[in-house]
């Protein structure tokens, strides 16, 4: 009788502890005790970003040639904007798609359509000289990536590997052929953060704070396709510096890059309804302007102290303490001119549904695979469009969302001269103003494309 009673009691206790674990980790207090906390309406009304002058953290113009790979994308757009701001006259956007931002409509900016999975396409884009200097680009900012943050299964791997790893190898191959070239690669803090193992409940321990000085992590790293691919690409960039003598650098922004058209702020502001289950989790995030400025700081350091910084990786984040996701969305709601509808959902339900979605997509793909080979000669789509944004609800997504993360960028500040200018509240207000004023297209990174 005791055994029969013990089993349901133990099961109930475990489910209760799992519910708790899906809201906090054993190390959450290390982050949440020093987090920003909710902001009052008066505090949010006082927030201003008008006084921020990004020009003061930029070195003087070099008037060399610049190639921004992925320059039409989120981060790449802001790198180009800062290059224009400091007076560069030879800027080439290397991307599969042309830029749409009005800020990039400038005589110093040109565009070359490029597929980075093709080494010849990359060679054509990077080896072509600028008309007024008759020389190829010498500074290459590589921000291009495919961010399939929801994928972790092996059948999805090639879609990410082809762009993030093969594409990086192609860029490095061509860069070695160019005289005096340097490559600054945008990675992610996710390459060194822990991977939550929710079912371990109270025994799932990994550090909340991450630093450059920490040894190579022994705890389980992210197993999702995106961070795995970025880690592999990092190794290629490091090897190019140490083996081939190419000047390279790696930046790991984190925990999330925020700004107009990002995934966090812009989706909250523009989606008709927003499902929420990650409100308590805290992190330090970086404004896209600061992330862009860090790339130019790294370029300057590669000129000044290449022996210290070439082939190195630096974490970078924004100014100020960590914010919880719930407090970020509350601030967005305060600044929004339309009513924002938030649907609060239980994390345990979303955890179960995420695994059901992953299993369904796995079975769907392998069921359709033989039919596609017989009748079409190809493979099934990894993105059934009829599912819409629901496809993002997978375990890898939760592992990236439901984590406390404090990024320590003191080494980047000391060595690279990186100086973050934006705190989270300023970036939120700027992003809302830019989108609501129509200065940027009301878009976000949570769309099936």
TrEMBL record:
It comes from the Eukaryota. Pfam families: 3Beta_HSD (PF01073). One of its GO terms (molecular function) is oxidoreductase activity, acting on the CH-OH group of donors, NAD or NADP as acceptor. Keywords: Oxidoreductase. InterPro entries: 3Beta_OHSteriod_DH/Estase (IPR002225), Lipid_A_modif_metabolic_enz (IPR050177), NAD(P)-bd_dom_sf (IPR036291). Residues 67-269 form the 3-beta hydroxysteroid dehydrogenase/isomerase domain. One of its GO terms (biological process) is steroid biosynthetic process. Belongs to the 3-beta-HSD family. PANTHER family: BIFUNCTIONAL POLYMYXIN RESISTANCE PROTEIN ARNA, SHORT CHAIN DEHYDROGENASE_REDUCTASE FAMILY 42E, MEMBER 2. This is 3-beta hydroxysteroid dehydrogenase/isomerase domain-containing protein.
């Amino acid at each position: 009788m005791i055994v029969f009673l013990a089993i349901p009691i133990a099961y109930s206790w475990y489910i209760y502890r799992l519910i708790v674990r899906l809201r906090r980790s054993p190390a959450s207090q290390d982050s949440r005790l020093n987090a920003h906390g909710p902001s009052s309406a008066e505090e949010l009304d006082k927030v201003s970003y008008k006084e921020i002058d990004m020009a003061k953290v930029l070195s003087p113009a070099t008037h060399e040639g610049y190639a921004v790979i992925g320059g039409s994308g989120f981060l790449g757009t802001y790198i180009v904007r800062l290059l224009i701001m400091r007076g560069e006259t030879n800027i080439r956007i290397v991307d599969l798609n042309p830029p749409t931002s009005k800020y990039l409509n400038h005589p110093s900016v040109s565009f070359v359509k490029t597929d980075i999975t093709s080494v010849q396409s990359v060679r054509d884009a990077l080896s072509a000289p600028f008309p007024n200097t008759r020389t190829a680009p010498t500074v290459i900012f590589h921000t291009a990536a495919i961010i399939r943050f929801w994928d972790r299964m092996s059948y999805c791997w090639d879609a990410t590997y082809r762009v993030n790893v093969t594409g990086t190898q192609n860029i490095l191959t061509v860069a070695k052929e160019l005289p005096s070239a340097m490559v600054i690669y945008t990675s992610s803090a996710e390459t060194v953060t822990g991977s939550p193992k929710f079912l371990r409940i109270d025994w799932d321990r990994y550090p909340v704070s991450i630093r450059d000085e920490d040894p190579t992590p022994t705890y389980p790293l992210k197993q999702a396709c995106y961070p795995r691919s970025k880690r592999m690409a990092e190794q290629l960039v490091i090897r190019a510096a140490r083996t081939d003598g190419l000047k390279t650098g790696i930046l790991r922004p984190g925990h999330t890059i925020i700004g107009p058209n990002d995934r966090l702020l812009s989706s909250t502001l523009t989606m008709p309804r927003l499902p929420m289950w990650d409100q308590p989790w805290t992190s330090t995030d970086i404004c896209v302007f600061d992330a862009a400025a860090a790339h130019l700081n790294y370029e300057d350091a590669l000129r000044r102290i290449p022996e210290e910084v070439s082939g190195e990786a630096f974490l970078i984040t924004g100014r100020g303490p960590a914010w919880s996701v719930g407090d970020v969305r509350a601030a967005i709601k305060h600044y929004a001119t339309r009513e924002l509808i938030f649907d609060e959902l239980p994390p345990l339900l979303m955890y179960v549904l995420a695994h059901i979605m992953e299993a369904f997509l796995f079975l769907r793909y392998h069921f359709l695979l033989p039919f596609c080979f017989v009748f079409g000669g190809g493979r099934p789509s990894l993105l059934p469009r009829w599912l819409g944004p629901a496809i993002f609800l997978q375990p890898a997504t939760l592992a990236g969302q439901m984590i406390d993360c404090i990024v320590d960028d003191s080494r980047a500040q000391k060595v690279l001269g990186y100086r973050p200018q934006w705190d989270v509240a300023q970036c939120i207000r700027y992003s809302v103003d830019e989108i609501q004023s129509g200065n940027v297209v009301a878009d976000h990174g949570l769309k099936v494309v």
